[in-house]
Design goal:
Shape: globular
Number of helices: 17
Structural class: mainly alpha
Largest sheet: none
Distance between the termini: 35 Å
CATH architecture of the largest domain: Up-down Bundle
Radius of gyration: 22 Å
Order of helices and strands: HHHHHHHHHHHHHHHHH
CATH topology of the largest domain: Growth Hormone, Chain: A
Helix content: over 70%
Length: 431
């Protein structure tokens, strides 16, 4: 007797009713893993809202710099304001994520996003009406309550696809590609808006997109994961392997931050500052394409064993821009090297996020993923500082050694064993 095709998900009282892909349902089986992923009822709606809300994450800092520097004629002030916002985010974001885990996405994320939007509007008005400098710092710090939209989206996938690691791997790969797309398009959109209309346009549009996207996202209550019963699990910072994993995220963030600064400096040194955006866009495009391809594969190695291989590939490929910069001043060659270098980024991030999900208690999942994003942001800040120092003290060409060094450091961190301590109660089994 032939096997009967099975539904993708099990129908339960407290979860979303998944689409049935069997021939009896009268529907053709969707082609490919992504087609099957988005055939689950409600996933397209919450993904659309999430993408709209996530796009401003790549807009706000660029918009703030252009707006403040253009009106106050001080890049130092603009940089200090955005750095203050980053520091505030590192403190506030895990707290917001903890509240989301305890009370649900809709109850916390929407008010938090509204408060962040008010902070953006306050910054816009302060700049527009010549408020004192301290008011700029206070207003931009208020935007730190912006929820981790990517983390909440991953939490929804983890809820909908529990028990199906292959589909969850595809979902995590898609989310990483979405991150790359938003951080690639966000700065470009911000620069176009600020340059075409008025200096505050990028901040204004970003605030509108954030609030609109969050309204759409939180309205999808059917796919929202229920609040997990509290098991008195310790903070993710105390879960086995998580501190080491967050340190790896920190080093990986340093790769991104230093690569951005050094690439801008290299393009500027060769008389084409405007080409820097295209070069960085190629790196993000390579990462996004690799992430989507990675999502179609079924990993046969556990995440904890796969991660060092992914980081090793990233370390090797990050050497390509260094070689290209030393061998030729051609921006075309550098662009090709950055495109290839970006291809190891998404698989590394997907695998690291999967490992983090496996080792974080279910009732603190958003908090764990937000800590990872915070570590990345901290690494980006450190990498930007070290990359800028290397460019000024040595050269932009030699500056490409900084991301290579950061990638090697991340590799050394991931090569250490993750299972030296007992697994936290309520967390997923290590894989």
């Amino acid at each position: 007797m032939p096997d009967t095709p099975q539904p993708l998900c099990t129908v339960t009282a407290d979860t979303l009713v998944a689409a049935d892909f069997s021939p009896r349902a009268g529907r053709r089986r969707p082609p490919g893993p992504y087609g099957r992923l988005f055939s689950i009822r409600g996933t397209r709606a919450f993904t659309a809202g999430n993408l709209v809300a996530r796009l401003p994450m790549g807009m706000f800092s660029v918009s703030a710099v252009v707006m403040i520097a253009g009106t106050r004629d001080s890049y130092a002030l603009a940089g200090a304001v955005t750095a203050t916002g980053l520091a505030a985010t590192a403190v506030v974001a895990p707290w917001i994520a903890r509240l989301v885990d305890r009370h649900g996405q809709a109850r916390i994320a929407l008010p938090a996003a509204l408060f962040a939007v008010l902070g953006s509007v306050a910054l816009l008005l302060c700049v527009r009406h010549g408020a004192p400098d301290w008011a700029l710092f206070a207003a931009y710090a208020a935007t730190a309550t912006t929820p981790n939209t990517g983390g909440m989206s991953r939490a929804r996938w983890a809820h909908l696809l529990r028990g199906d690691p292959a589909a969850l791997h595809t979902a995590n790969s898609f989310e990483q590609a979405a991150d790359e797309l938003c951080f690639m398009l966000g700065p470009v959109l911000a620069a176009v808006l600020c340059g075409t209309f008025f200096p505050e346009a990028g901040t204004l549009v970003g605030a509108v997109l954030l609030l609109t996207g969050m309204l759409l996202f939180t309205a999808q209550r059917a796919t929202e994961p229920p609040v997990a019963p509290r098991r008195r699990a310790p903070s993710p910072l105390r879960a086995p392997g998580i501190p080491r994993l967050l340190t790896a995220f920190l080093a990986t963030g340093a790769v991104f931050g230093s690569m951005e600064v050094v690439t801008i400096a290299f393009a500027d040194a060769h008389g084409s500052r405007t080409a820097a955006g295209v070069l960085l866009g190629l790196q993000a495009a390579g990462s996004g394409a690799a992430g989507l391809l990675f999502g179609t594969l079924r990993p046969v190695v556990p995440a904890r064993r796969l991660l060092p291989w992914c980081v090793a590939a990233m370390a090797v490929l990050m050497a390509l821009p260094l070689l290209a910069a030393h061998l030729t001043p051609s921006l075309l060659a550098l662009g090709a090297a950055l495109l290839l270098a970006g291809m190891a980024t998404a698989p590394t991030m997907v695998t690291a996020m999967t490992l983090l999900q496996q080792r974080t208690s279910a009732d603190r999942l958003n908090e764990g993923m937000t800590l990872a994003v915070t570590a990345l942001l901290g690494g980006i800040a450190c990498g930007s500082a070290v990359g800028g120092w290397a460019v000024e003290r040595v050269s932009a060409t030699t500056g490409y050694a900084v991301p290579v060094t950061a990638a090697v450091l991340a590799l050394a961190i991931t090569l250490a064993p993750f299972d030296r301590t007992r697994r936290v109660a309520g967390s997923r089994a290590p894989r």
